[in-house]
Structure formats: structure tokens, C-alpha cells
Amino acid sequence: MAQEVAAAKALGIEVPQFAHHLSSGHIQFINDHFRFQKELLGIDKGTLYFPQTNEVVFGFPKIRRILAMRNLGMHFKKPFYVEEKLDGYNVRLCKVNNEVLAFTRGGIKDKYTAQRILQHMTGDFFDKHPQYVLCGEVIGLQNPYQEKGYPEERDFGFYVFDVREKNTNKPVSAEKRYALMKRFKINQVRSFGLYKATDWQALLKLTRKLGDQGREGIVMKSHDIGMQLKYTSNQSTSKDLEYAFTFPFDYGQAFFFRRLIRQGFQASELNLTKKQLDHEAARIGKAILFPMVHTINELKKGNEVTEDFEIEVPDEQFGREFIEHLKKMGLVLSVRGLKKGRASCKFRISRHYQATNDKTKAYLQGSLSSD
Ligand code: ATP
Predict the structure, then answer these.
(1) What is the C-alpha separation between 303 and 297, in angstroms, rounded?
(2) Which atom of ligand 1 is nearest to the CA of 90?
(3) What pLDDT score does 195 carry?
């Protein structure tokens, strides 16, 4: 009970509220910390409380999306920073009880990610700044969450885009963060510098150019990080669709709808010629149809469609434990191959998408859809 009182106090909420959500399972106690399994009482999902050190690591806040860039002036009254939005998975890195830990967006402790990041993070950042949480994107192919290789980082890389204080969640200003990461030689997302709201057409062009390079888009941030907006390229949205339509029954319908709407707004603001618009339409259509036809054809041949990825770990046991951890998180996985090297070990893993495989097979065998 003493822990719950301390947790509620540190989080600024009432003890009975904390106790209520703990008993309903929305706040969980895992080994040595509490975790917000969803957003509650204005506290972000993935927020963590560590009783031993009486510390809070807040969940990473939601970044809203702008659809019509011409309205940027409604959200930014002063010049703002523009950074590249990398497409990977969100990780918070922090030091608690003398150990540097990595947490996913949902607040799950991830030993694999911590180990991979720390392999390359030399320097003593957390010795000098134990109060800070480094929020960054992991990109590259060697992970179970999001596989997108970047030319600069095919396998695995961690790029900081935000630095926040434990307990208060106060962000470090953009300029201070840029200097801090540079000083400690920690990778950070590209900053394109300061822009004004009236530059919105230049930002549309920049996003388009990033899209042509296979990159996702931008995040716009006020100096003090009080306001952040994201904007992503149509090319990248099509890539998302293409991926999701490989496993259409495993994605919620909202996933597809939101992405189609984004494409409409961007295509309109880009003022495309008829020829360019045709091209845009063809890309979206291909992103929907090609992967679905591929999936249906594979099932017709009696094959299963899976997502295959690789992880690189220090040894076999580490890998097996991480796979068990992922299975407990609800992923259906099977190991396809194991390559043991001198200093590390690589696992090839398949992720199974049950709903897509089962439903597609059932329709192929004659099941009827009720629509
Ligand atoms: P959200 O809940 O914030 O909407 P989401 O899971 O829908 O998140 P996205 O739509 O991809 O994710 O956009 C937000 C995410 O973008 C952030 O949580 C962060 O992981 C990632 N990101 C990549 N680059 C940056 C950057 N430069 N600044 C801020 N976030 C970035």
C-alpha cells in the first residue's frame, strides 16, 4: 500500500484512483515497477513508476497530424523547427537504479533494444544526466516491430528526437537538445532548421522530396516543444498501405481509411497536373491491389503469408528469451533459422498473421461474406 501511495503522489493523482485502476488491470505491477497499460486520468499510456527510486518516466505524448498544411499559421505563431520524421519504433532510454533501460511506446521493457543501442552508445550521457530520458526512433531491419531499412542504417540505429526530464516530463528545448546530443556524440534525427508558417508550400515540397527518397516525412516543433505536428509523404503512406494490405484482415479498417484520407488532402494541396494525379492514383491502387493479390495467390498455392525478420543477439539464450518475451506480448512467432557467429547470433523469425491466413483461406474454400 505504501508503494501505491507514493506512486499516486508522484503522478499527481488520488490514491483511490490509482488503486482502482491497479485492481482493474489498467495499471500493472511488473517485477519492480508500475506501468500504465493505457492512457488514464490524463497520463499517457506507457508511463512507468519505479518505487525503489521513487521516479516516474512518462509515456511519450501523442503527436497530432496536420492534414491541410495551409493552416500551419493557426498552430505556429512563431518560427518553428522542422525535423525529419523517421519511420521505426519509439523507444525511451533512461537510467533507473544504475541500469540503462529501454522501453517501447507501450512501456514494455525491451532488453533486446537496450542491448543493441548500448552496443554503440559510447560516452557517459546518463552518468552526467541521470535525470533525462532519451526519446528516439529505432530504425532498420533487425527488430520485431517495424522493418524499414534506411541507407544510413540498414540493420539497426537509434536516433534521438526528444529529451525529457523524469518526474516532470518537461522537454529540453530543441536548440539545447541539438547541442546536448552533439556534445555526447549521440545520433539524432536530422533538423532542417527554422521555418515560418508562411513557408508551408516549401514544407510540402520538402515532404515530397523526402517521399521520393523513400523517407517518411517531417515533424514540426516549437522551440520549447510545447507544440508538435507531424506531416508525412504520400509515397510513405502508400508504402504503409502496401504492407498492411498483405495482411488485410489483421489491420483495423480505420488504419486503411485514415491513410486514404491523408493521400487525398496531400494530392489536393500539391496542385498536381492531371498526369501527376494519374500517377498518384495508380500508386495508391497498386499499393492496395498488388499485395492483396499476392496474399490470395499464395494461399491458393497452399502457402502461408508471414512477415519474416531477423534479430541479432549476443548469444542463443538471449535470443530465445527475447522470443519468449515477444510471444508473451501476443506475437505468434516461429524460428526459421539460427546462425551462430563468434561474437553474436542471428535468428530468422516468422511472424504469423492468423486472421489474414484463416479468412483468406476460408473465402477461397467458398465461405460467404455477409456484406
Ligand atoms: P502517435 O501516438 O504519436 O500519433 P503513432 O504510433 O501513430 O504515434 P506516428 O504517426 O508514426 O506514430 O507518429 C509519431 C511518432 O513518430 C513518434 O511517437 C515517434 O516515435 C516518431 N518520430 C520519428 N521521428 C520523430 C521526430 N523527429 N520527432 C518526433 N517524433 C518522431
Answers:
(1) 9
(2) 20
(3) 98
Residue 78 falls inside a structural domain: no
CATH number of the domain within which 9 lies: 3.10.450
Q: What pLDDT was estimated at residue 255?
A: 96
**DSSP reduced 3-state for 148:** strand
Query: Is 169 a member of any domain?
Result: yes
User: 122 falls in which pLDDT band (50, 70, 90)?
Assistant: confident
* pLDDT tens for each residue of 51-106: 999 999 999 999 999 999 999 999 999 999 999 999 999 999 999 999 999 999 99
Residue 101 lies in a domain: yes
The answer, yes or no, to whether any atom of ligand 1 lies below 6 A from the CB of 67, is no
Residue type, 59: G
Crossing angle for the helix pair 316-328 and 111-120, to the nearest 10 degrees: 130
* 71 DSSP 8-state letter: G
Predicted confidence band of residue 147 (pLDDT cuts 50, 70, 90):
confident
Residues 91 and 183 in one domain: yes
Q: Is 86 in the pocket of ligand 1 (CB under 6 A)?
A: yes
On whether residue 47 sits in a domain, the answer given is: yes
Residue 156 near ligand 1, beta carbon < 6 Å: no
**Residue 68, C-beta contacts closer than 8 angstroms, at least 6 positions apart:** 265, 269
User: 273 lies in which domain range?
Assistant: 235-300
> Which atom of ligand 1 lies at the shortest distance from residue 62's CA?
3
Separation of alpha carbons 315 and 111, rounded Å: 13
Domain count, the chain: 4
Atom index in ligand 1 nearest the CA of residue 159 equals 24
Considering the domain architecture, whether residues 120 and 159 belong to the same structural domain is answered as: yes
**Among 262, 284, 300, where does a domain finish?**
300
Residue among 45, 87, 90 whose CB has most ligand 1 atoms within 8 A, to mutate: 90
Q: Which atom of ligand 1 is nearest to the CA of 89?
A: 20
